[in-house]
Specification:
single chain; mainly beta; outer membrane lipoprotein receptor (LolB), chain A; 3 helices
Length: 194
């Protein structure tokens, strides 16, 4: 479970949405490739995964300060504040927003990723060197105006450059009323604080 949470924390960043879609999220973390399914709408987003036989779902409603992690096999749900480090590990938006509050986003160009026109940006920390310049690039992201969602991302925080995410196979998707809710019959717990 800790491995899954760590991978989610370092895997993807998402921004407010403008199109409803599902996509395959391919990412490399610690030298291992993973594939998650992302569902995104104006109401929120969710990630579904199955890592080593353990199913999981991360749910984030836009405008909420809460992150929900579902464990379908155990019929359990954990809820936590979006600012809790464990929640940020489960909520790439919260993690991104946390770093973005203390950083500077710089647009550096445009590129086409998987046939999608994207704006390439870099997020730098605000700790400056003696010349007043930000001195650490934290993320490089490619976002699309159509999806307003990172199509590709490289996380530079750990210094390895090995955390790379890319969305592929983007398809239209329409959520149902339960897409961003805890299913009936689940035991609900508070997410542990770290």
């Amino acid at each position: 479970m800790k491995k899954i949470i760590y991978m989610l924390m370092l895997s993807i960043l998402v921004l407010p949405l403008s199109a409803q879609f599902s996509a395959k999220m391919f990412f490399t973390s610690m030298g291992k490739e993973h594939v998650f399914t992302v569902y995104s709408s104006d109401a929120g987003y969710r990630y579904e995964f199955n890592e080593e036989g353990q199913e999981g779902v991360i749910i984030v409603k836009l405008g909420s300060s809460e992150v929900i992690m579902l464990m379908p096999q155990q019929k359990m749900a954990m809820k936590g504040s979006s600012e809790n480090p464990m929640s940020m590990g489960n909520d790439p938006v919260g993690s991104y927003e946390y770093f973005k509050k203390n950083g500077t986003l710089k647009e550096v160009g445009t590129e086409t990723i998987n046939g999608i026109d994207c704006i390439k940006s870099e997020l730098w920390n605000e700790n400056s060197n003696e010349y007043g310049q930000a001195n650490q690039k934290m993320f490089t992201i490619w976002t699309s105006d159509k999806y307003n969602f990172p199509i590709k991302m490289i996380n530079h925080i750990d210094g390895s450059g090995g955390l790379v995410m890319e969305l592929k196979e983007i398809q239209p998707w329409t959520p149902n009323a339960q897409s961003f809710e805890i299913p009936e019959g689940y035991q609900v717990m508070d997410m542990p604080k770290m």
